[in-house]
Write a structure and sequence with these properties.
This protein has helices at about 1-40, 55-80, 145-165, 165-170, 180-185, 190-195, 200-230, 235-240, 250-255, and strands spanning about 100-105, 110, 115-120, 125, 130, 135-140. The protein has about 290 residues and is mainly alpha-helical. It has a domain at about 10-40 and about 55-85 and about 145-265. Strand 1 and strand 2 (about 110) form a beta hairpin. Helix 1 (about 1-40) packs antiparallel against helix 2 (about 55-80), helix 1 (about 1-40) crosses helix 7 (about 200-230) and helix 3 (about 145-165) crosses helix 7 (about 200-230). The chain starts with a helix and ends in a 34-residue tail after the last helix. It is found in: Membrane. Pfam families: DHHC (PF01529).
Length: about 290
């Protein structure tokens, strides 16, 4: 019974690890579908503009931009998950051990500077930044570009969706700020369960709320990582206030995003080879934590 319970617990644990990925996927496609509906019915247009030639061009341009962002989000996320940032398959012998190298007792190998063990991924990760619970994988040397690009298009997509959903907020508040409208915006689930609103009104209110909350959260993550990128730091190094690998703004961009840093953010299909190997790094400051 103990063995059966242990196996069941492991399976449940593995399933729970994938819940954030499924939830993110569901929310991304739900928001895309809702915004597509708003575009197709021409919600932000005035009544006299909805049947004009401008309306057709407006819809085409908005749908093109919308699915360009969705495609970039999905493709960057796919490449992020497909690209392993770990030390597996990487020859670490090199020219011998130097300053910053450590021994990982779990992986039973010496690891280079900026590399650390992830107990979720159960492996050491080159230039490990953090373990992303939303994707269930570590952000490291080889997949950082896809992670940041995914954040960029999620941020821009949520900003766009929030602007498009302004019409939803206007409709909800058109009769003034009442208890009903406030509750619909703040707790749409309770309003649906209690039978105060229809399923259609709930869906629009819930997705509009999700856009606002999601935009605020993604903004925090995105601008924090831009801040780290400009400083040449990982999240772990930010905790210790170290900046020994700061190469200046352009140097940091090339080192993190690759040689084509200035254009690779447009599409994950644009090749942008990284200048380093994730093992050796140019040191420009003290490796000791600042006091």
């Amino acid at each position: 019974m103990t063995g059966l319970g242990s196996k069941l617990f492991c399976k449940v644990g593995k399933f729970c690890e994938h819940i954030p990925v499924f939830l993110n996927t569901f929310l991304v496609f739900s928001i895309t579908g809702e915004v597509s509906y708003l575009v197709l019915v021409g919600a932000p247009l005035e009544a006299e503009q909805k049947d004009s030639v401008w309306s057709s061009w407006w819809k085409a341009l908005h749908l093109l931009g919308q699915y360009f962002m969705l495609g970039n989000i999905c493709w960057n996320a796919f490449l992020f998950l497909k690209t392993s940032p770990s030390i597996k398959g990487v020859f670490l012998g090199g020219d011998g051990l130097g300053q910053g190298w450590r021994y990982c007792y779990t992986c039973e190998t010496h690891t280079p500077p900026r590399c650390s063990h992830c107990y979720d991924c159960k492996v050491c990760v080159l230039r490990r930044d953090h373990h992303c619970v939303f994707f269930g994988q570590c952000v490291g040397f080889r997949n950082y570009r896809y992670f940041l690009s995914c954040l960029l298009f999620m941020w821009s997509g949520l900003l766009y969706a929030m602007v498009m959903n302004a019409e939803v907020f206007i409709v909800i508040l058109k009769e003034g700020v009442t208890l009903h409208s406030i509750l619909l915006l703040l707790v749409p689930w309770i309003m649906l369960v209690s039978g105060q609103v229809s399923a259609r009104a709930f869906a629009f209110a819930f997705i509009a709320d999700t856009c606002v909350v999601g935009f605020l959260l993604v903004s925090a993550f995105f601008f924090f990582h831009l801040f780290l990128l400009f400083r040449g730091q990982t999240t772990r190094e930010w905790y210790s206030s170290r900046r020994p690998y700061n190469l200046g703004l352009l140097g940091n961009l090339r080192h993190m995003l690759g040689l084509r840093w200035y254009i690779c953010w447009l599409s994950p299909l644009i090749p942008s080879p990284l200048p380093g190997d994730g093992i050796t790094f140019q040191v420009t400051g003290s490796l000791e934590p600042s006091q």
